[in-house]
Design a protein that fits this description.
48% of the residues lie in helices and 23% in strands. It is an alpha+beta fold. It folds into two domains: 80 residues; 101 residues, RlpA-like domain (Barwin-like endoglucanases, Beta Barrel). Strand 1 and strand 2 form a beta hairpin. It is rod-shaped and about 140 Å long. The protein binds zinc ion (ZN). The site of zinc ion (ZN) has 7 residues, from helix 2 and helix 3. The site of zinc ion has 7 residues, from helix 2 and helix 3.
């Protein structure tokens, strides 16, 4: 065996070893990459699942809060309705009509334009009972609570429009002194 041949053989073996090392190295590198990819993917899946759970939790919390708010609103509404539905000791209910301008009138010509004490519905006006109203706002026959007293809408008047009620008095002197604003309730 000559010297050249020997060195050629040596080089060939060396190349073989290098090739083997490269091959093994490649395999290991691939395995490592695969592992990394798999790990990354797993990490992403876990993060995604966490975000989903958090979103679901937030949604359920928002739903519960909305439900609680709706219940609170309903309760407040019921309380307001109960407060608005005042009742008299005899069990009749009071429905607020709003604020009215209250004045007085009597059977004199100046107050009643010649109708005297005969009301719009044909009854005789009575002090402490009869009031004149705008019948488009308050129908005749309606019982009203005004300033703590019960009256009946029995009359009308040319100047009695909308939120204005004229209270009947026997004397002009009494009637002329009346002017105030108050909350009026329908009694049913
Ligand atoms: Zn008068």
């Amino acid at each position: 065996m000559g010297r050249r041949e020997h060195s050629f053989l040596y080089i060939r073996e060396l190349l073989l070893v290098i090739a083997l090392m490269l091959f093994l190295g490649g395999c290991m590198s691939f395995t490592a990459s695969a592992g990394t990819i798999k790990g990354t993917k797993a990490l992403f899946i876990t993060a995604g699942a966490d975000a989903e759970a958090e979103a679901k939790e937030a949604e359920e919390k928002a739903k519960a809060e909305a439900l609680a708010k709706a219940e609170a609103d309903k309760k407040a509404q019921e309380e307001a309705a109960a407060a608005a539905r005042l009742t008299l000791p005899d069990g009749r209910t009071l429905t607020p009509l709003g604020s009215f301008r209250i004045t007085g009138y009597c059977p004199c010509y100046q107050c009643s334009e010649g109708h005297g004490s005969v009301t719009a519905i044909g009854t005789r006006a009575r002090s402490g009972r009869t009031v004149a109203v705008d019948p488009r706002v308050i129908p005749y026959g309606t019982h009203l609570l005004i300033n703590g007293h019960e009256y009946v809408a029995e009359d009308c008047g040319g100047a009695v429009k909308r939120n204005h009620i004229d209270v009947y008095f026997d004397s002009h002197r009494e009637a002329a002194n009346i002017l105030y604003y108050t909350e009026v309730y329908i009694i049913r």
